[in-house]
Design a protein that fits this description.
The structure holds 2 protein chains of 2 kinds. Chain A is an alpha+beta fold. Chain A is about 25% helix and about 20% strand. Chain A contains 3 helices and 4 strands. Chain A has helices at about 40-55, 75-80, 105-110, and strands at about 30-35, 60-70, 85-90, 95-100. In chain A, strands 2-1-3-4 form a 4-stranded mixed sheet, with helices on one face. In chain A, helix 1 links the parallel strand 1 (about 30-35) and strand 2 (about 60-70). Chain A starts with about 30 loop residues before the first strand and ends in a 6-residue tail after the last helix. In chain A, about 40% of the residues are buried. By secondary structure, chain B is α/β, with parallel strands linked by helices. Chain B is about 40% helix and about 25% strand. In chain B, helix 13 packs parallel to helix 14 (about 385-400) and helix 15 (about 485-565) runs antiparallel to helix 16 (about 570-585). In chain B, strand 11 (about 230-235) and strand 12 form a beta hairpin. The termini of chain B are far apart. Chain B contains 16 helices and 25 strands. A 9-stranded mixed sheet of chain B has the order 5-4-7-8-3-9-10-11-12, sandwiched between helices. The chains are: A alpha+beta, B alpha/beta. The interface of A and B includes residues 102 and 104 of A. Strand 4 (about 95-100) of chain A pairs parallel with strand 6 (about 110-115) of chain B.
């Protein structure tokens, strides 16, 4: 497996910090967290799909954190994760969750509110 | 302790069972829930599913030292802790002791978008982590159906559920899964198809505006179990299931007697009273003194130092004590001593089953020797005859099993036949007293009969029954040529009889005096006759004497003459014969 989603190296940071500001603040507003359980093909697919979407639509304004619940099962409680993979949009608020391998780009965009429904 | 033993005694080959610690439940399932397998608890909203599940964990942690995980999909940890605190469960302490772990899974459908494939591995990881963190042996999932409403893809949910149950079995935890009841099905989403081992249905039924909770074991693979609907209670001590329908006719029959508290009534019953452990029906129309009979019975028991329980469905404790004091029965002192306990409730407060359950509980905790239920007919207000009879049968069986003597009063409506015991329980009873008002000459009087007393030679006579300042007094009713008389008719009849008696006595005395006089007269006459006789006899004797003297003189003269004339001795003989005759006459 080339790019391991469990490694924190996959994290990408935007220039600014994650100060909770309005969506209009384009530079800092996208804080995304991807929960997976082990390095399954589905996890890998989800991570790749997420990366592609972010690069295309949110270039330079997003921050992805990947959490492997196999290693940290306690973290599932905080964001109320049941299904994997789950993508959580921490910022901008409100919190939104997208479950599945993110293969349907259009629905991901709707889910993240990047595209109007 | 008993539960622990039962658990150890289970053979290894059969299905192992996990005792729940819920009172009564382990009895009807003969051991508890299937160990290491999931059990489905289903029921409509408010049936007590969550509580059952929580008690399963709490009892497991406290009684059997088996830690448990409660995964809730409906209520937060705080809500759960608050809800069960009223039952005396201190969840926070159990959590701190690592005996219990609460995990609240919250899913908000509106937050969730679905794209592509996924599974519920995160849920498994969460649960697995919770189980491992405290070494849990028991798991509750309350209510898994929330997943169906939270996740749009039902196919995935179903596949994952199947995997979850398999996973739970592999982990060897005893799991309780709750499910909401659906239309015509046990659960709305058909959870029962995943849980094949044990399904328990909780029901909360309202009948005549009175609710009763019931439990039924729909299935329990690989074991025998009671199949009835068992009523259960939720009170301040948690769940209690009542395995009362499983009683049989195997009770012992004591030969000891208990007094009725009324000496004359004891006399009517071979002089000893009722058998201990028997059940006694006291029936009668309104105001005939049924409760008073019961109060006497209780008073006698308490005076012997036995414990007595009074289930009153018509009057309050204060009212009973006051009323009984007016006829000289002081129940209050027994209450103060702790020998007597009242349980007062309107029949309509609960359903029949709940009443029965409460009676059971009270009897179990108070452990009385004597129980009074006053009156049983009031149960007809909340159940039909058949239900009431069935409930009373179970109550009587229960009392007999515990060898408690029970007295049940039954109100007969004045229009129905006297021998009609209203709830058809007379055949269940060992003894039956009938109190009846007899109306005649513009007054009502009470009469008491013993209609039956199994195994006791009893009087067949009616007794008049008086309520006096010193309690009940039984008086022989007047039975004579004029029929059975009671009350003032009896008194006036007795007065008439007394007058007649006096009259007869006078007549006798008169006759005796007459006889006396006759006797005296006779004796006087007899005396007079004797006197006359004596007089005449003396006169005759005197005459005879004189005659004798004359004869002797004549003989003497003849002898003298003969001597003078030198005659021979023949003349002496004549003289001797004459003397002998004279002697005879004097002897008479």
């Amino acid at each position: 497996m080339k790019s391991s989603p469990t490694q924190k190296s996959s994290r990408r940071k935007t220039s600014n910090g994650n100060s909770p500001q309005k969506v209009s603040d384009e530079l800092s507003s996208w804080n995304l967290r991807l929960y997976v359980a082990g390095q399954t093909p589905r996890s890998v697919t989800a991570f790749k799909n997420l990366n592609d979407i972010c690069e295309e639509y949110l270039k330079g304004q997003y921050d992805i954190e990947v959490i492997d619940l196999m290693e940290n099962p306690t973290l599932a409680r905080g964001d109320q994760i049941l299904a994997v993979p789950t993508l959580v949009r921490k910022l901008p608020q409100p919190i939104r969750k997208i479950i599945g391998d993110l293969s349907n780009t259009e629905r991901v965009l709707v889910g993240l509110d990047i595209q109007p429904r | 302790m008993a539960r622990q033993n039962r658990r150890n005694a289970k053979p290894l080959k059969g299905l192992r069972k996990e005792p729940t610690g819920i009172s009564g439940f382990d009895e009807i399932t003969s051991g508890g829930l299937p160990s290491g397998r999931p059990t489905l608890i289903c029921g409509s909203a408010g049936a007590g599913k969550t509580l059952f599940a929580m008690e399963f964990l709490v009892r497991g942690a406290t009684l059997f030292n088996e830690p448990g995980v409660f995964m809730s999909f409906e209520e937060s940890d705080e809500e759960l802790a608050t809800n069960v605190a009223s039952l005396g469960f201190d969840l926070d302490q159990l959590v701190a002791d690592k005996k219990l772990r609460l995990d609240y899974v919250f899913i908000e459908r509106s937050e969730i978008e679905e794209t592509g494939e996924y599974d519920l591995e995160a849920l498994f990881l969460r649960l697995g982590h919770a189980i491992d963190s405290i070494g849990a042996r028991r798991v509750v999932l309350d209510t898994l159906e929330a997943l169906f409403s939270a996740l749009p893809n039902e196919a995935i949910v179903r596949a994952e559920l199947r995997r979850l149950f398999r996973w739970l079995k592999e982990r060897g935890v005893t799991a309780v899964i709750t499910g909401e009841r659906g239309d015509g099905k046990l659960t709305r989403y058909g959870l029962e198809e995943y849980v094949a081992d044990c399904v328990i249905l909780l029901d909360h039924r309202v009948q005549n505006q009175i609710s009763t909770r019931r439990m039924r074991i729909v299935k329990y693979r690989g074991t025998s179990h009671g199949t009835n609907e068992y009523p259960f209670l939720i009170d301040e001590k948690g769940f209690s299931v009542l395995p009362i329908t499983s009683l049989g006719l195997t009770h012992k029959a004591p030969t000891e007697f208990v007094s009725t508290g009324i000496p004359r009534l004891d006399t009517m019953l071979s002089g000893r009273g009722f058998y201990r452990g028997s059940s006694i029906l006291v029936s009668g129309t309104a105001g005939t003194g049924k409760s008073t009979l019961a109060a006497h019975f209780i008073e006698a028991a308490c005076t012997r130092g036995e414990r007595a329980l009074f289930f009153a469905f018509e009057e309050s404790q204060e009212q009973i004590i006051r009323n009984m004091r007016s006829i000289g029965i002081d129940l209050e002192k027994h209450v103060r001593k702790g020998l007597l306990k009242f349980q007062n409730a309107r029949p309509s407060s609960w359903g029949l089953e709940v009443h029965l359950a409460l009676i059971h509980k009270t009897i179990d905790t108070f452990n009385p020797a004597v129980v009074v239920v006053d009156p049983i007919t009031n149960f007809l207000a909340i159940g039909d005859r058949m239900e009431t009879k069935s409930m009373l049968t179970r109550l009587i069986d229960f009392l007999k099993m515990k060898q408690i003597t029970g007295m049940f009063t039954s109100l007969t409506s004045s229009s129905s036949a006297m021998e009609d015991s209203e709830v058809d329980v007379s055949s269940l009873m060992d003894a039956w007293l009938l109190v009846k008002t007899i109306e005649s000459n513009g007054e009502r009087n009470r009469g008491l009969y013993i209609l039956k007393a199994r195994g006791i030679a009893h009087s067949n006579q009616v007794r008049e029954f008086l309520l006096t300042r010193n309690g009940i007094e039984l008086i022989d009713a007047y039975i004579g040529a004029e029929g059975v008389l009671m009350g003032s008719a009896r008194s006036s009849q007795i007065a008439r009889e007394q007058a007649a008696d006096v009259e007869r006595q006078h007549a006798t005395a008169r006759k005796e005096r007459e006889l006396q006089r006759k006797q005296e007269l006779y004796e006087a006459k007899l005396q007079a006759l004797r006197n006359q006789y004596e007089t005449e006899r003396n006169a005759i004797l005197r005459e005879l004497d004189e005659e004798q003297n004359r004869l002797r003189l004549a003989a003497d003269q003849r002898l003298e003459i003969a001597r003078l004339r030198r005659a021979d001795t023949k003349a002496t003989k004549v003289e001797e014969n004459g003397a002998r005759r004279a002697q005879k006459g004097a002897g008479r």
